[in-house]
């Protein structure tokens, strides 16, 4: 992973300068941005830039495995979780008390969803849930 812009006479302005220091330790981000140097997959994993590393030729199998895990979850909950995460990103730099006080309509939507009721019933009845995406 690298941003080679400085080696080409540019600035990594398509979000690189803004995003990289939020994803990596500041010193590592600064080094990468000022030199155009790369980090390898192991470092990207260690710094939290990637979730996992697969063996060469196995990336699609790993992606399908992750997709299968997501698909097994409630589609309503997945969608609403993504919505809450996007909303929370706007407050990433706010203090903990402010972030904790944020309310999302997605939470209310989830609590009255058929999937929420089905998930609770399936858990109690010790059976796989039958998601409705409602």
Features:
134 residues; mainly alpha; 2 domains; 8 helices; 58% helix
Model description:
The radius of gyration is 20 Å and the shape is flat. With about 130 residues, it is mostly helical.
Task: Characterize the main sheet.
Answer: none
Beta content comes to under 5%
Poorly predicted residue ranges? none
Number of helices: 8
What letter string, H or E per element, gives the SSE order?
HHHHHHHH
Q: Would you tell me the structural class of the helices and strands? A: mainly alpha
Total strand count, please? Answer: 0
The global form is flat
Whole-number count of domains = 2
In helices, the fraction of residues equals: 55-70%
Task: Describe the oligomeric state of these chains in a short phrase.
Answer: single chain
Topology overview:
Elements: H1 16-23, H2 26-35, H3 41-46, H4 59-72, H5 75-89, H6 96-101, H7 105-111, H8 114-125
Helix pairs in contact: 1-2, 5-7
Structure in a nutshell:
The chain has 134 residues and is mostly helical. 58% of the residues lie in helices and 0% in strands.
